[in-house]
Amino acid sequence: MPPLPELPGRPSSATTSAPPDAAVVEAWLGELGLEPAVRVERDGLTAWDVILDGRRRFDLRFTLIHDPSAGVIVWLPYAPPVTDGYRKSYEQLLRWNDELPYVKFGLDSEARLVLSTELPGRGLDAWSLGLAFARLVAVCDYLLEASAHWLFAESRIPPQERPSRGASLLDRYAFELTELLEGRASPP
Fold first, then answer.
1. What is the mean pLDDT of the chain?
2. In this structure, what DSSP letter does residue 117 have?
3. Quick one: pLDDT at residue 181?
4. pLDDT value at 65 more than 80
5. Which domains, ranges and CATH numbers included, belong to the chain?
6. Are 157 and 148 in contact (CB under 8 A)?
7. Is 48 helix (H, G, I), strand (E, B) or coil?
8. At CB < 8 A and 24+ separation, what contacts does 95-101 make?
9. Measured between alpha carbons, how far is residue 42 from residues 25, 37, 39, 45, 173 in Å?
């Protein structure tokens, strides 16, 4: 994937602007080089599915949900349903919720682990939306070893033999994500 064009910084009116409509959010996805696989509209909400790769974890399936009255949530199924070791898994999720800023782990209605971030409508812009996607991808890469027991048979991380679909997004926001990209010696 070629490098992404530079995005302008946050507009000075970002904190006072009205929440964007779905057409604006979709245009931002294009500016960010994110090509939605699916778009769905229902009950005044719009949702897009986007597939991205990290540098280490590939085929991350994101859903961006836009509510014009509230903002957006970007989330992805982080791991399959938790079937054993509930207490240990929950303790790990709570620890990560405490130690990793701006993202939250939880369970969906099918007991799948999910990772998400929420952005309010006021002040939402292409830059903050791109940063939200980049942060979630970076967290998935950062916690790959610590999550391998949930993600892969026998905890074996498969080799990736193709270029990342998210590398240019991570490069664009690298200075905002140094705690995840340069990281600590090991995940929390």
1. 87
2. E
3. 85
4. yes
5. 22-181 (3.30.1460.10)
6. yes
7. strand
8. 95/188, 96/143, 96/188, 99/188, 100/139, 100/180, 100/188, 101/179
9. 16, 17, 10, 5, 32
